[in-house]
Every structure is written in C-alpha cells, then in structure tokens.
Amino acid sequence: MTSSFSSAEYESLCGLVWPAGQLPLTLDLDLENWRFQGFQFDPQSKVGLKQAKNGPCGVLAAVQAALLGTIIFVQGLWKDPLAPPAPDVLEGALISSLCAVLSQTRVDRSSSVQVVLKKSAQEPLTMADFDSFVIHNVPQNSLFAFMDRHKAQFQGEGGVVLFLYSLVLTRGVKQVKEDMVYDASTLVVGNWGLCSQALVNLCIIGQALPGVDDDSMLKFREDIEIGLLTYEEVENMTFGSGYSLLTDSLKHPKFPIWIVHGGDHYTTLFGFDSENISKSGTPKKSVTGGASNMCVNDCGFHGNPATFGYCSACYKKVGEKKQKQDDTWDGKCKGGCDFFWVCRKDGILLCLL
Fold it and tell me: What one-character DSSP code corresponds to residue 333?
C-alpha cells in the first residue's frame, strides 16, 4: 500500500524535522549536507559509514553503532579486527540495521513500518517538493526484502533524508511531538543543520526523548544495547551541578558500543569483548580481577569515582536530600578540609579522605 504527502502534511513534517524557520522551498539550498548524504561505506575503513559534510552525524553514528552490534555480536560475522567482512556481507548487515532502527520506533509492535522513497529512483532528491516522495506501508515481516530491493535509494544521495522521514512517519508525527513534550526544538537544529539529542535517541531507543538523564530514560535503564558518552558529562561533573547528565545504562550498555558526542559532532566507539558486561549492562569484574565497582548505595548499578562511588541516580538523590537538610551547607567536607563530601551510609558529610 502506498500514499503521498499532501502539502499540509509535508509542511507539518518539515516543521518538526528541520531547523525552526526553514521553509520547504529553501531546504534544497540550505541543507545540502543532508540532501547529498547517503549510507555508503568508506573505502579505507571498509566498515565505517562515510560522512561528506557536517550535520547528519548523529543518524550516521546511530546506524553505524547498530551495524557494528549486528556484525560483531548478533550475527558474529566480524571477529578479527584486521579482517572485516566482505562487502556483500556488510551490505546485508547495513540493511538489517536500518530495518532494526526503523522497527523499534513503532508505537504498536504489530503495526507496519512507513518507508519513504523518491517517486523516481533515478532523479536527484528534491526536498522542496512534497510530491516527489511516496510513502510505503510495509509489514514488519516484509521489511528486509523491501529495503533490500530499494537499497540504492538509501545508499545514494539523500538516503539519510529518506531514512529520517521514515523514522518520523513510523513513530508518527504526533507521537514524536509528544516524545519531545518538554523541548520546543526540532529534530535537526541550528544554522548548520545538526542532529539534536532527541533525534539520536529516536535512532537508538525508538523514542525522540530530549534528555539522557535518569528521569528521561528511567524505563530504559536495563534495556539499552547501544550506549552514549558525551564531553558535557565531564564538564557538568567538573564545573556544573555535579550530577550526572547520563543515565548509567547509557554508559554501560549491553554491547561495548557507544555513540560519542563531542560538542557539535557524533561518532562511534566500539570494542570486540563483551565478556565484562552483564545482561543488565553493568560490569561484572574489573579487568584486573578485582571486585565489581558497584554503586555504594547497593542499588545494583555501576558506581563512578567521580560521584564518590554512587551511580548517577543515587548521587543525585543523596545530594538533593542533604541540601534540603541544610540550605546553608556549601558542599565542603564537615571534617574541616578543603575537599567535597561524600555521604557515607551513617549520614556523616565527610570526604573520602
């Protein structure tokens, strides 16, 4: 079953996806970094997806992470880091990964996937023309075969835009807006057309949640395969509130694969050894054979030396509790030294020294 956008539907989609103030008529000129980007392998790295210009990095990094998880851990096709799989194997894994990322955005797991393609596969992508797209309603059990037949559209110029539109329509424009209820922004932001965190979350967990902290990601604490690391975590711990910006399950995912955020760019970090990661996403034992570094509050999640042995959620709760008890407290150790405190189980505000 196929359908097309109406003018109003396409304007609504563009208003949710593209930076505020962007009109469909100006998309082709203003967002060339998206218009010409497809899912193509870099000839040097063999396995890495090539990015031409800044902007679509968040989507590419998420699909790259899903691809690595597929070929290393799910299908077990890549075991020797120096010997990547053959091109046809990688191409099949790419299609599988695109299908997996799309499928998880469905609100109803029994529903079909909405796949957006160009009406004319041979013509260049025209983002300004709503009538240049066709929407395919594809059942889940036929998705891989459908995507494989039309893989050239996703690998070629504009393939990332087609995939982005497919993500939003499969989730539903209304539902994506509800996911982003506390965020008035768009999925692509700024003058340079950069990926928002909501867009990256849509790719890695299937929901366009704007945050990555414990409150935002509570229901996903034990169900995240791909992790996330960001420099903002370090900055916030050092110069900000002192509370973790990232839920612990993003730091310790099921697979040793992380999307890495460095300010205005997303990339992918991964490893081949998942033996030290338990099913809950937390390390079993240290590499040196020592005891597991669990939260000192015995909540079952991994502790962090930067938060005095607490996981991010417990550290936040302990800090809020102590500040409510003493509004005048400056955070310094009650023992009189210049270091900051850590709350022991007896409730005494002493530093680790």
Answer: -
Percent of the chain, pLDDT > 90?
A: 51
Q: In which order are the strands placed within the sheet that holds 227-230?
A: 227-230, 257-261, 266-270
- Strand residues in the chain grouped as ranges (E): 2-3, 113-118, 133-138, 188-189, 194-195, 227-230, 257-261, 266-270, 342-343, 349-350
Residue type, 275: E
Which residue from 107, 169, 109 is spatially nearest to 135, judged by alpha carbons?
169
Of 315, 298, 310, the C-alpha closest to 242 is 315
Nearest-angstrom CA–CA distance, 10 and 272: 42
Whole-angstrom CA distances from 175 to 64, 161, 292 are: 25, 19, 40
Measured CA to CA in angstroms, residue 141 lies from 100, 111, 112, 155, 156 at distances of: 12, 11, 9, 22, 25
Residue 168, strand partner residues: none
Give the separation between CA 92 and CA 71, rounded to whole angstroms: 10
Question: What residue type is assigned to position 352 of the chain?
Answer: L
Structure tokens at 106: 């469905």
Residues facing 2 on adjacent strands = 136
Q: Which of 215, 183, 213 is nearest to 196 (CA)?
A: 183
Distance between CA 67 and CA 74 in Å, rounded? 10
pLDDT digits (tens, 9 = 90+) for 329-349: 444 445 555 444 443 334 444
- Which tens digit of pLDDT belongs to each residue from 29-67? 778 899 999 999 999 989 999 999 989 999 999 999 999
- CA-CA distance, 250 to 164, in Å (whole number)? 23
Q: Which residues contact 284 (CB under 8 A, 6 or more apart)?
A: 276, 277, 278, 292
- How far is residue 234's CA from residue 87's CA, in Å, rounded to a whole number? 38
| Residue 111 DSSP SS3 | coil
Taking 50 as the pLDDT cut, the residues of the chain under it are 278-292, 323, 325-333, 338-353
Q: Mutual orientation of helices 57-68 and 159-171 as an angle, nearest 10°?
A: 80
Here the tokens at position 29 are 């000129």
